[in-house]
Design a protein that fits this description.
single chain; alpha/beta; seven-stranded mixed beta sheet
Length: 327
């Protein structure tokens, strides 16, 4: 007698395999943390993320959150995740005033990833862009992806010790780089040191809730520890504290920093970043079983990030300023 049909058996077998894969991925997540130890630990983490090709295959050449414009119904309008990432670049250019700079202006992209934003800045706005990252693998990939003739180049460099002359660039652009910086004041100082008088600053960052707005409870402390230890972050600044670091910098010439909170506009990115594996399964499957496990390994942290931003533990801050010119 047949006790179970083949379709049901296949379904149960697939479910068992899925559960086993999720269990293995969760085990890897719990056991293989990426605690911040030094700049080398950040470089090594990004080298691995670049060399395994998983993020690029899933998300394209922009390794940052997307911007989802308001639908008019009180919530962000859904759009393709990769398109939302390009929208983010244009929104930050417009909001920060970089679109007021003439073609040929020099821009330093601090924490450039594999160069997606830098290429848009060069292609669509005519800027001369230098993108820097501490990851040699990212710089090699950014260079390989950049068409000949585009005024966009890349170099391995530490954001806390920029090999760029004082007051030498027209704009500084930095997206989601500050969480990896152990010294937030030095990060702010370096961004402003290389900026010319009259130059523009555009920064976007993952920020924690300011302690003055409420201490973390036990659950929030556990979540925060995971967000720090899983992705090589020494600490998150709050919007208020990073604003102070920028305004108090000795290199800022008393510039005023405007801030805004883009949490709502960027929040769909977290779930979309997971959904890309469903929309583009071949992107993962084509890389083999190890990539599937790697994707599963990253999923708990992404879900915790979504929870943290949705509940107010984290905020997506943007910062702009124009360095004063001498009187």
């Amino acid at each position: 007698m047949t006790l179970i049909s083949w379709p049901l058996a296949a379904t149960l077998g697939a479910g068992a395999l899925a559960c086993a894969a999720i269990g293995l991925g969760t085990g890897l997540w719990l056991q293989r943390r990426r605690r911040y130890q030094s700049a080398d630990s950040v470089a090594q983490a990004y080298d691995r993320w670049t060399n395994d090709q998983l993020l690029e295959r899933l998300w394209g050449d922009h390794i940052h959150l997307g911007y989802y414009r308001d639908s008019g119904l009180g919530r962000p309008r859904h759009q393709d995740f990769r398109a939302a990432k390009e929208t983010f670049v244009h929104e930050l250019v417009r909001w920060s005033g970089l679109d007021q700079l003439p073609p040929g202006s020099t821009v330093l992209d601090v924490g450039c990833g594999i160069g997606g934003s830098a290429r848009i800045l060069a292609r669509d706005y005519g800027f001369q862009v230098l993108g820097i990252s501490i990851s040699p693998a990212q710089i090699a990939r950014a260079t390989a992806l950049t068409p000949a003739g585009l005024r966009c180049r890349f170099a391995v460099m530490d954001a806390l010790a920029l090999e760029v002359a004082d007051a030498s660039v027209d704009a500084v652009w930095s997206v989601e780089a500050c969480p990896h910086m152990p010294d937030k004041q030095r990060y702010a100082d370096e961004l402003l040191r290389v900026l010319k008088p009259g130059g523009r600053l555009a920064v976007a960052d993952w920020n924690r809730r300011d302690p003055a707005d409420g201490a973390m409870d036990r659950r929030e402390r556990w979540v925060m520890r995971q967000l720090l230890e899983q992705w090589a972050h020494p600490e998150f600044a709050s919007i208020r504290s990073l604003q102070r670091h920028l305004e108090d910098s000795a290199y800022g010439a008393s510039l005023a920093i405007d801030t805004d909170d883009w949490t709502r506009a960027t929040l769909p990115s977290w779930i979309d970043s997971i959904s890309e594996g469903v929309r583009r399964p071949w992107a993962i499957l084509g890389l083999g079983p190890a990539a599937v496990l790697q994707g599963l390994r990253e999923t708990p942290t992404i879900l915790l990030m979504h929870w943290a931003f949705a509940t107010g533990l984290m905020q997506f801050g943007v910062f702009r300023g124009r360095k004063p010119e001498p009187a």
